[in-house]
User: Fold this.
Amino acid sequence: GAVVSQHPSWVICKSGTSVKIECRSLDFQATTMFWYRQFPKQSLMLMATSNEGSKATYEQGVEKDKFLINHASLTLSTLTVTSAHPEDSSFYICSARAGQTSTDTQYFGPGTRLTVL
Amino acid sequence: GDSVTQMEGPVTLSEEAFLTINCTYTATGYPSLFWYVQYPGEGLQLLLKATKADDKGSNKGFEATYRKETTSFHLEKGSVQVSDSAVYFCALSDLGRGAQKLVFGQGTRLTINP
Assistant:
């Protein structure tokens, strides 16, 4: 149980195009989903937190107009990288949590590797 | 702000060796503490957690004890296996921050040689 999937697992796009990444909780309802970015050999950096049906909360320094997050249902959140540039190339990871407290486990997706040419 | 510091890697050990990966934290509140593991090509998996002082989390032979007095949550295993080769992340979650988000350490890459 508690499986989180991401699609696609990898994507290559041209500079200036937009890319949408999906995150799904397959066997539970996720009240909260998180989006992280991981650079090579570095830690995960939280980009934003989204609760179903409400606007995402972005971390300081993350451009909300560039990284659009939609959490339309309890099992699906999407991250759209708009007008992607090579510096946006990274590993994007989502996680999902069923409960409301910090002791509730976050379940992580396998990640999506984005390469912008 | 809240932060987590892990011992720098990479760490290379022989099979059956004793493992310790140090983790210390700073937090304004009273955080929950976690160890996550990332196997090659896979997403992060929760390895163990502790939610209050002196709690010991354990799983798959790994243990970590929540030490409030030293603000530490060191990961230990008595006898490592080749299959334990992975990247290990220490993390905290501080309800007091409101966002209930995880703050990760930089990760420690562990390689176990047969």
User: Anything to note?
Assistant: The mean pLDDT of chain B is 91.
